Amino acid sequence: MPPTPPLHRALTDPSTPPLRPLPAPVVALLVDLAAPPRLAAHLRAVHDVACELTAWVRLRYPQAAFDGAAVEFGAAVHDVGKVVHPAELSGPGSEHEPAGRELLLARGVEPALARFAGTHASWAADGIGLEDLLVSLADKVWKGQRVADLERLVVDRLAAAGGQEPWEAFLALDDALDRIAADADGRLAFQGSFPITG
């Protein structure tokens, strides 16, 4: 079944700043689920920021051991559970987190990738890796939000990987996040231009 016109636009329309397309398997999943257009627009925005973050970490911290492709996929699906809990598109709630993980597992997504639907809001939990932290960070900074506790966890991982003092990694990350956050208004306007329902 082809996507509704609003969903198609959310997945393909140009934006300012330009947003990368979602990975083809994610597009197919969202179309199959008849995802709300606003959700698709949100996932594009967060995915785009995650791509920027992974590129920056690879360039600035080549010693950091992390799976950038997993980060980018995780960002592209992190809120997919809002298909099941659409009220959480416009209001608070965390039911979409386990629901998204279960939905992805039921669709054949491997657990290592499905986990991001559940971990994107749990960055302080035990066993959280750099990949999870970067998805969480992308989910905040896309709209210009800065979360000191989350950023501190990322800084600690980057400083350890780069053999730096934490303050050095903080300055580097702070500059990168300021640059990314500068385009937040455009990303917010893009997301807000799409309806919550199909």
List the defining traits of the structure above:
single chain, 11 helices, 62% helix, mainly alpha, 198 residues
Short description:
The protein is mainly α and 198 residues long. It has helices spanning 5-12, 24-32, 37-60, 68-77, 96-106, 111-114, 116-119, 130-141, 148-162, 166-181, 184-192.
Descriptive overview:
The protein is mainly α and 198 residues long. 62% of the residues lie in helices and 0% in strands. It has 11 helices and no strands. It has helices at residues 5-12, 24-32, 37-60, 68-77, 96-106, 111-114, 116-119, 130-141, 148-162, 166-181, 184-192. Helix 1 runs parallel beside helix 3 (37-60). The longest helix has 24 residues, at 37-60. The model has no long low-confidence stretch (mean pLDDT 94).
Write the layout of secondary structure elements.
Blueprint: H1 5-12, H2 24-32, H3 37-60, H4 68-77, H5 96-106, H6 111-114, H7 116-119, H8 130-141, H9 148-162, H10 166-181, H11 184-192
Helix pairs in contact: 1-3, 3-4, 3-8, 3-11, 4-8, 8-9, 9-10
Q: Summarize the main sheet.
A: none
Please count the helical segments.
11
Mean pLDDT: 94
Coarse shape = globular
Helical amount? 55-70%
* Counted beta strands: 0
Element-level helix/strand string: HHHHHHHHHHH
Q: Indicate the low-confidence ranges by residue numbers.
A: none
Q: What Rg, in angstroms, do the CA atoms define?
A: 16 Å
CA(first)-CA(last) distance: 14 Å
Helices and strands: which structural class? mainly alpha
Approximate strand percentage: under 5%
